[in-house]
Amino acid sequence: MSEWAMNGGVAVPQDVTVTDQLTATSTAQAPDERPDRNDERPDVSVVELERELGLFLRRAHSASAGMARGVHPDLEPAAYELLAIIAGSPSTVRASDLAAHIGVGRGTMSRQLSRLLSLGLIQRRPDPGDFRGQLLSLTDEGRARLDAARASRRTYLVGALAGWTSDDVLRVAHDLGRLNAALASAREGATAVAAARV
Question: Is 69 helix (H, G, I), strand (E, B) or coil?
């Protein structure tokens, strides 16, 4: 397996050894021999997913920092995520909707948006439907910089996955979509339970 390092603002792999591999006995278990999900012992498949997801998230964080620097040297990874979400909206996005989607407070959102504004990457205008609200969109400069960073990332991914078939890539994309949906649903359920207890 490989760790990611930054090279010219693009994440590239470096060889590393993963020391937390599952034991041969655990990986050799047949699916029907795995412990029940209600058992106190964790399911081997969940342990493996947790390990791989942890490594993936560390690499993604490193890549996100590189992507942010690729857009602008002073852009933080969290602000890059906001920029990408604004870019993905059909026209404009409300600052309040953005805060709810990301799951951060208004103060944090305000600071990050102020940074994007000061760098000239986004623009805002009053929301005609809500006198307190703001509608956000990318500037031409912001879109050009984001498009260039994304093109660089896609070029890297094409090279990294050169040995994969299109079906392989689509399968992983589909499974990541299922994982994201399941995690979002679990988070919403936990939030609803917590709110009911108040």
Answer: helix
